[in-house]
Every structure is written in structure tokens, then in C-alpha cells.
Amino acid sequence: MLFARAHARTSAAALEGNLRALSRRAGVPLLLPVKADAYGHGLEIVACVAARHPDVWGLAVATPQEAGALAALNPGKPVVLLTPPRAGEVPLLADLGVRLPVASLEQAEALPPHARAHLKVDTGMNRLGARPEDAVRVGQRLAERGVLEGAYTHFATADEPDLAFAWQQFRRFQDVLAQLPPVLAHASNGGGILSLGALPGMRLARPGLASYGFAPPHLGGVLPLTPVMTLDAEVTHLHTALEGESVSYGGLWHAPRDTLLATVGLGYADGYPRNATGQAHVTVAGERRPVVGRICMDQCMVDVTGLPVQVGDTVRFWGPDAITAGDVAGWGGTNEYEVLTGLGARVERLAAP
Predict the structure, then answer these.
(1) Is 20 part of any known ligand binding site?
(2) Is residue 127 a known part of a binding site?
(3) Which residues carry this modification: N6-(pyridoxal phosphate)lysine (predicted)?
């Protein structure tokens, strides 16, 4: 039997707790985004938790492929596609029961009669959707055809300290909804839930990264969110670098003394950012230790001098109790979204209590 050298464990208890807290603050059930392999946490694992969670109405994805994969898992809850499919994909997606995004009269007319649509309204993100003045006509036509189930928009700045534009977007969305029959309206992402709270007239909320335990720093105290993922990898080799010897590509780091090094089976091809070189730390044998030398494609080296470490031991790269994915993102000059979704396929996803 062959084994993975790195494992990402998704905690059901942490995810369940985050979802419960977010739903309570939003005052509505959740449409849980599980795009990008559930933000790197494993689509099947997260869908299983969501399927039994009373505060989750449905699951949202970004691509038709994701919608098909999720529908095949049969989560027992609605699947909503958030970005437009090709025209030729619409019949199959409708047959699978996937809720479809609609932003034009042409798309509205092309829907099969058994489809269910969510009207996409662009209130200022300028990415996808119909402008408010056009969205009303599209929504009314969907209602006439009997296929309108929901309507949604997306906040561009709800995770920023200044909420003026977010409120402006919400008012624009309300103006559209006022001219449509009652629908499953949803607007708030995680930042919106944390900063704006319960919004009048909304029936659902879509917390993405917040569901998985992360909030903008200025909103970190709003809810007790817990990071859901723990990332570990194994020590594959132990050796001593003599005083003055360089380590890894470019010879960026030199041993200040005879140094016991653990080579660990995780690198930038697995999603651990190469730009974290020179700053990254890990937890090994209960201690925080530096990653030394340039991070490689498949591995990295850790100073474990003085620790009782053996080949096969576990090194923790992030988790809820010490170093977090946010720390790693800071070292790599990026954000938690990129770090979590960038985890490669060689990292085995495992369910944890």
C-alpha cells in the first residue's frame, strides 16, 4: 500500500460550530460555498457535514464541473451554480436539479421549463450579473415562466472597515427585489454576515471563508470562528548540516552551528508558498521551529536540533491551536483564500471529528 506524505484534516466539529454561529448572526439559513474543493478542505468531506447540518439550506459552486460532481454526491440539499454555464450545459444541469444563474432575457428564455433559476444582480461588483434596471425585466420574465426561485448579488467591500458602498449595494438589491415576487434572496458573504449582521428581506446567506474559520482582522472578534483544517506532513529524512554549510537552492541559509535538519514531505507543488522562505515556522515535537533554506517543490527543511524527532514523525504546518493558515499567508505575501485553495492533490484530505 502507498501512503501520502501530507494530510489535511477537516474538523466536522469546527465546521459545524462555525456554520451554526454564522447562521445565527445572519438570521437565516446558509447557502454554503463549496467551490474550489470546498476551499481546499475536500468537497466530499464538507458536503457530508453540510448534508446533516440544520442551518445549511444548500451548497454553492462556481463551475458546471463542480456542480456535476456535487450533484453526484447527492447531498440531499439544493446545489446552486453561481457563474454562468455554456448554453449546451444548461439542459444537463437542469436535469440534475442544479439551480442556474440567469442574468439576461436570452438566458431566461433558454431555460427548460423544469429548471430553477437564481437571478444574478450586479449591484456594483462589476463581475457578473444584470444591472439593476435590466435585472427587474429578467426577473419578471423568469417569474412569468414559473422558474424563478432566487435572486442574489455579491458585496465587493463588506469585509472592509468602510461599509458605505456595501450598504449602497444592498439598497440597489432591495430596489430590484421590491419589483419581483417573493424569492430566496441572498447577498451576504462572510464579510457581510460579520459586518452587517441580519439584513432585512434576505432568506439566505453565503459565508465562504468564514465558514472555514477565518475573518478579516478587524472583524475577528465578532464571532468565535475556529479554523477547520489542520495540515501535517511527515519527516522523510534526518541529517546534520555542519556549521557554515548552506542549505537548499541558492545557499540562502547557512548553519550557525552543527544543526540537525528534518526534511519534510511538503513543498510549493503541494501549495506551501515558496515566498514564505526565510520566514516560515512549523510545530514539531511540541515546539515552534523555523523552516530553513529555500522551500522546494516537494519538500522543505526544518531545524530540529535538540528535539526527539524520528523519520515518520509528524510536522504541523498549520492548525487551529498554533500556527494558522493566516500566518502562512502572511509569510507568503498572500491571503488565506490562496493558501487554502492552493493545496495540491498530493495532500490527502481526511475527515476528522
Answers:
(1) no
(2) yes
(3) 35
